Amino acid sequence: MSLAVPTSKCISKNPSDQVVEAAKRRPDMLVQVGLEYRYIPPVAKLIDIVKTGTLGQVKMVAIREHRFPFLVKVNNWNRFNCNSGGTLVEKCCHFFDLMRLFVGSNPVRVMASGAIDVNHKDEIYDGKVPDIIDNAYVIVEFENGSRGMLDLCMFAEGSKNEQEISVVGDIGKGEAFVPESIVRWGTRVDGRDGVKTLQAADDRIKYDGLHHGSSYLEHMNFLCAIRARAQAPAVDLQDGLISVAIGVAAQLSIEKGRFVSIQEVLNQ
């Protein structure tokens, strides 16, 4: 038996440790978490570049998402923090997963600043006005000393790229741009003139959709794991748990106006 779990539904109020333990007691089940941003072609290519060591030891990851507001969902569940965990959980867990993947380390603490400035302020559902933030800056510190930063704006439709991802190591730098699907990377030694540019594509994708074909590739990966009777998924429950924990810590940081440790979140 196999099961795919959408990450955004792993709300922090659930007993996540019990879910992990339950999965361990069922070795006949393959549980894979839905962190599909790993499969967006330019992002996947940047992940490969980092894994080869071309950039050296990653020190900084900067992710900018400037996009359109949240779309309307079933029963407007994504308009309220009590349903989604908040914007930085429901949407941005995918970016926090990428940060962790790039730096190869677990998060220690999070500092965030965010607000509700433009979107959904004139909407009312069952007498309630949405309370989800529409912009934020988030800084994540990792065990190995690396740092990640998220720059989120959800009223920035006038952007050429929805996501711009920068990964800087002690040897070089790599970037991925979505939906242009451009990847650039270079080394400190070669300088600006040595920067390489690649148009990333995956011929298996027939329809991009809002996730730029990554949802299809993710499910293909999961199907291959099932058919191969893999002992472990490409993205496991721990990956999902930590990515959501970073988002929860960021939401708490905005609320409390201070750094929030990941351990504080996991102990709740």
UniProtKB/TrEMBL annotation:
Record-linked InterPro entries: Gfo-Idh-MocA_inositol_DH, Gfo/Idh/MocA-like_OxRdtase_C
Listed Pfam families: GFO_IDH_MocA_C
Domain spans labelled Gfo/Idh/MocA-like oxidoreductase C-terminal: 50-261
Highest taxon listed in the record's lineage: Eukaryota
Protein's recorded name: OLC1v1031780C1
Natural source organism: Oldenlandia corymbosa var. corymbosa
